[in-house]
Write a structure and sequence with these properties.
The relative contact order is 0.13. The chain is α/β, with parallel strands linked by helices. Helix content is about 45%, strand content about 15%. The protein has a 6-stranded parallel sheet with strand order 3-2-1-4-5-6, with helices on both faces. Strands 8-7-9-10 form a 4-stranded mixed sheet, covered by helices on one side. Helix 4 (about 90-110) runs parallel beside helix 8 (about 185-195). The longest helix has 23 residues, at about 330-355. Bound molecules: NADP nicotinamide-adenine-dinucleotide phosphate. NADP nicotinamide-adenine-dinucleotide phosphate binds near residues 9, 10 and 173.
Length: about 350
Amino acid sequence: MKRVALLGATGSIGKQAREIVEAHPELELVAAASGSQDIEGVAPLTQVGGDLTELLEKSKPDVVLNAVVGFAGLPATLWTLEQGVDLALANKESLVAGGDLALAAWKEGGGRILPVDSEHSAVFQLLEGKESTSVDSLVLTASGGPFRGRSRAELNSISPLEALAHPTWNMGPKITVDSATLMNKGLELIEAHFLFELPYDRIEVVVHQTSIVHALVRFRDGASLAHLGYPDMRVPISYALTYPERAATPIAPLDLASGLILEFSAPDEDAFPCLALARAAGEAGRTVPCVLNAANEIAVASFLDGRLPFLGIPEVVERTLNAVDAVTASDLDDLLAVDAEARRIASALTRELVH
Ligand SMILES: NC(=O)c1ccc[n+]([C@@H]2O[C@H](COP(=O)([O-])OP(=O)(O)OC[C@H]3O[C@@H](n4cnc5c(N)ncnc54)[C@H](OP(=O)(O)O)[C@@H]3O)[C@@H](O)[C@H]2O)c1
């Protein structure tokens, strides 16, 4: 039996994870947490909000699936890595904001990170059994979101409803907006940098509208391996929870004869500046990615409330990045302070742009 603690149990990933756990008798849901929704009865131990590490301490899990959205997932990521417990990681924001601390805790704790983000799960699988010296570069694919092909001028009047209509993935609201701005791919770029310990100039992002190829790895001998599958998060969730067994899922095998469209193109960084902002923040390092993440969370929440225009999101992020000095965070408290400062500035900038 594998004892699973599920954080973010009421969300898009959380619900699919519950389905996977129910289908596999060798997985036991010992603890579940949400932010505000009632989850009594979902697992023997439950917690709504608060310090999720308390629930983790009590439940003694073999694997923690962190499917909380946003910076709120960071303490649980750090706790899990420090304890050397396996971390099935959907909460990319924790690695973006706290990558250096997470990496140190991971090395110290000696556990595994099993990525749940489909692109990172794909890279993880492609790299299994390969020498790191044989790897040339990684390629993460992006669907391009619902506004792929539009110019910057065409993006200003986008409503939250339009941004929430993702063409290939059905996800929670924050990541759906992040996909529409391409910030999601920017966050994933930073996530990949920390997970696979490669410099940014060896991680490429390409647009691939149908989301069939999740990622590729180029090797030094000129070969590239790709990971293909229909866009269905139950596949990477199941892979992470049942690793290394690769248990069966109810997902249909890829039907090549029905005609798959496998086209790739460069992202339009003029219309979607969030990707370049994230790359620059990642390259700058220290607490810059933490500031990027905090500003983005504030801007996306304001956009979803119908206040900030769509193009206000990159503007708030860029201006917040310019306003907050980078420091080196030596512990979680340092990051909490930087996150709070960035949120304060991003909120003020958001109010300025709304009025
Ligand atoms: N959805 C996908 O297909 C997908 C794919 C790849 C990666 N991810 C990543 O997975 C994470 C979750 O995404 P999602 O789409 O599942 O989001 P979601 O549907 O919005 O669900 C978020 C979950 O987090 C919980 N939560 C929010 N704030 C919390 C807090 N302060 N403390 C504890 N729990 C809190 C929510 O609880 P309440 O319901 O009570 O608010 C909910 O259970 C994100 O980091 C996202 O980037 C998602």
